[in-house]
Amino acid sequence: MLHQDDLKWIAKTSTELNTVLQQIARYADLAKRQKGDHDYIDQLNQQVEIATQAAQALLNRVMSMILENTSGKTLSARVPAATSSAPGADLAGEAEDSTEGRVPMITPEVAMLNPDGARELVLIVDDEPEIAEFASTILAEEGYKVIVARDGFEALKIFQQIHREIGLIILDFFLPVMDGDAVFEELKAINPGVDVVLSSGFAEQNKIGAMLAQGLRGFIPKPYTREKLLEQVRSTLDAPRRQTR
To answer: Would the pTM of this model clear 0.85, i.e. be above it?
Structure first.
């Protein structure tokens, strides 16, 4: 059986392969628009499409294996039962719909900034230390509880454990191993009602559009100011949820 580090390496490699193939496809499309006979470009596009699908399938399969390895008995051993302090509490009812007045269940290895904050818990997923520190400090100063994840896998592991406690996720688009759109799909698989705001200096408009159609709550371009960050966070948390298919 493959070690989890091996699985992560495979996932990282397949993601890089997929990115390169997408770039090749773009260049091939540009060449196709030039004058002349470009039948070989059509063939190249077909092969690139096949390879892209294969790489994506590999990534999806590996991700499923990794998520399975980080769930189940591992999580149950680390996360206290939600009913331990209130026997008979209904996880599927009020506890799932509201985080007000509750103390988030955090494992020892997950650091929370401003754990006694009066406002919602925000998960920041960003591999740029300066931006993560900037955003987390601002939110903590405004009374939010904050957790920072450095990549998609760390974010998914945290979300699996305490997704009922997280009010909002600020998700970077370009991340190590897996990009934001892939992380978003996995978050939705865990909790279809997850509230996510995408953050990026550059992202393909078609991918942002697809994420919005799937329930993305907003987009905040980088670099952002203190005022813009706080405005986006508060407006997203206060806005009614849209019904998505």
So the answer is: no
